[in-house]
Amino acid sequence: MKRTLFLLFFLCSALIIQAQSVVEPSAEKHPEWTQPFPPFQIAGNLYYVGTTDLACYLITTSAGNILINTGLASSETQIIANIKALGFNISNTKILLTTQAHFDHMGAMAAIKKITKAKMMADEGDAAVIADGGLSDYDLKGDVRTFAPVKVDRILHNGDIVKLGNMKLTMLHHPGHTKGSCSYLFDVKDNKRGYRVLIANMPTIVTDKKFTDLPSYPNIAKDYAYTLKAMKGLKFDIWLASHGIQFNLLSKHKPGSPYNPMAFADKKNYYDEIAELQTEYDKKMEVK
To answer: 0.70 cut: is pTM over it?
Structure first.
């Protein structure tokens, strides 16, 4: 009897520890991360289903749907409601992707994977972080999970193709912000024309530490340099990003406004953003 009680106590304690092991950083300084935003059709079979700033994208296909990013853990119900409002069902999601393995893009991924049984595909550089919930993130202490771990069903490398139904997405390895930050390049079309779409993971420069103060990511400076150069040479018709603020979502789409893919064709905005990041990177490299 005592042995049984001990085992029950041990199991309960383990469950409590496991439940407490995910500690999502506070988002109080970023109310726009949880502020609802009406879902809308961006171009063809590409839709916006995220919050005001945490961009999440739904790509519908003839064989099911692809969801890119999930925002915070608390965004789960909002994303599901947004997908439903567009006339689609979360259960039809077959592939899950992310632009980077941080809690503000991975927060609800585990929950949505459990609901949908979808396959999680991720850049090789972020696969381990996704699988351990952020424990191995180069910029964290390594003693706490910032999001629920997600099993990675397929590891992606630069240039790999993600296929589903009539869609083909090319994953672009754009490391720096995380070891496996990535962008996606693909084609969609409506009844007027086709569009080359770039969902860009803008390489935000780590600002609170010197590159040399990150021993668990010795190639960070080299990776940033590679990514900035690679992103300058991309060709696309319309572009989006991991955060709404990065591609001026609020100025390009007002809730309730009509379908207008070309609102996201501001290439100058894209190259100006990259130029600013290049300047930040150069300044960072000057710091000894």
So the answer is: yes
